[in-house]
Design goal:
430 residues, alpha/beta, QueA-like, 2 domains, ten-stranded mixed beta sheet, 19 strands
Length: 430
């Protein structure tokens, strides 16, 4: 099999006209009342989203991204009144998400800072309510890396965990293309009903259409559900500005998958439906991490973990995939073998959760190894997410988007969705 050729993917071929009126600025009151476009091996139709039970019920396994959106936008003010916006990106100290959200009395984060030129130095302070407690939150810029800054957070009373503090201090990070400020209702709207683990600064939006009732019906129909956790970063909104994708730097995202979910994927090989592009990215990255294990490209030993003060394998640096790394790896290894290799590694490390980091960029020409079906929203022109859709269903992506535009579908995060069934299922070499 040949790998996709980044220098041949010209971004002018992956754009379309998106009128502002087609962008959903707010969600529907009834999540399941949204439209679902069905692309079934070349045929296109549409139906209410709640029909997903009929379309996907009893079919293999659905993979859900259970990451929870944090209140990532924190507005501070200088004594002069000048507004400074701090946007949380990822934790630095503690570096793991669980540790960062349970941290007290302080923690340090990688952030983007709005109106940075007005913040010449010194700490900024504000009083907020965290739960039933009045809290004084203090922020200090400890390093400026240009595109991002290191921000130290401290608070009083310092017995409260950071997760509770920012839940009271922050605003919902609604996407910039909505061109509006967040409203209180966004805190619930911009969250899937199955979100569990804090860390995302953007919602895995395909999951916004699901209700607890729909999930229950799917499970009763015989469909298995498996969960992964991929913390969606702000980079998901960064457009590809280069002429070809070769010169675009893909953002890194942290994800974790339990051994139980990996075993479910193996059991349902050929019948795996990814809920959202974030789930796809994690699933396909899993395959290549397994290939790296088989070929000895990723060597992690208990001794290495102990030498770095780690008693578990939960360090994303040990399981990672760079942007185009997969293009240089063998592509003839069966998916089951790759996933079994990961299970073997977890067993050797006495772990049952694989934690990793991926920069993988999926572009047209890529052959999917694990993902057989995809439920996803409609994405921005010239985005990496649109490239992934084009990779999944080929040139028919234009027919799908033309159909959606002509049939008054609502676009982007709060918009409608699609069920994509490609002409052929995921490739399983061997």
């Amino acid at each position: 099999m040949t790998s996709p050729v980044p220098e041949n993917i010209r971004m002018e071929d992956y754009t379309y006209e998106l009128p502002d009126g087609k962008i959903a600025k707010y969600p529907l009151e009834d999540r399941a009342a949204s439209k679902l476009l069905v692309y079934d091996r070349g045929k296109i139709s549409h139906t209410p989203f709640r029909d997903i039970v009929r379309l996907a019920g009893g079919y293999g396994m659905l993979v859900l991204n259970n990451s929870k959106v944090i209140q990532a936008r924190i507005l501070m003010n200088k004594p002069s009144g000048a507004a400074i916006e701090i946007f949380l990106l990822e934790p630095l100290d503690p570096a793991d998400y669980n540790g960062a959200f349970s941290a007290s009395p302080g923690c340090r984060w990688k952030c983007m800072t709005g109106n940075k030129k007005r913040w010449k130095g010194g700490a900024l302070s504000k009083k907020i309510m965290a739960g039933e407690s009045e809290v004084t939150l203090e922020t200090l810029m400890t390093a400026d890396h240009g595109a991002w800054q290191e921000i130290q957070f401290t608070w009083e009373p310092d017995s409260l965990p950071f997760g509770l503090v920012i839940d009271g201090a922050g605003l919902t990070p609604v996407p910039p293309y909505l061109n509006r400020l967040p409203v209180p209702e966004d805190k619930a709207w911009y969250q899937t009903v199955y979100s569990r683990y804090e860390g995302s600064v953007a919602a895995p939006t395909a999951g916004l259409h699901f209700t607890g009732e729909i999930l229950d019906k799917l499970r009763r129909s015989g469909s298995a559900t498996g969960e992964i956790t991929l913390h969606v970063g702000a980079g998901t909104f960064v457009p590809v500005k280069s002429e070809t994708v070769l010169n675009h730097t893909m953002h890194a995202e942290h994800f974790s998958v339990t051994g139980k979910t990996i075993r479910q994927i193996i059991k349902n090989a050929g019948l795996v439906t990814a809920i959202g592009t974030t789930s796809v990215r994690a699933l396909e990255s899993l395959y290549w991490l397994g290939v790296k294990e088989i070929k000895g490209c990723s060597r992690v030993t208990v001794k290495q973990l102990e030498n770095r003060g780690q008693t578990t394998g939960r360090n994303p640096g040990y399981f990672s995939l760079s942007q185009w790394e997969y293009a240089g790896l063998p592509d003839d290894i069966p998916a089951e073998a790759a996933l079994e290799a990961l299970l073997h590694k977890l067993s050797a490390l006495d772990e049952d959760v694989l934690e990793a980091k991926t920069e993988m960029m999926i572009i047209p020409g890529y052959r999917f190894r694990i993902t057989d079906r995809l439920i996803t929203n409609f994405h921005q022109p010239g985005s990496t997410l649109l490239l992934l859709v084009a990779a999944f269903i080929g040139g028919d992506w234009r027919r799908v988007y033309d159909y959606a535009l002509k049939n008054d579908f609502r676009f982007l995060s709060y918009g409608d969705s699609s069920l994509l069934i490609p002409l052929q299922a995921a490739v399983n070499p061997g």
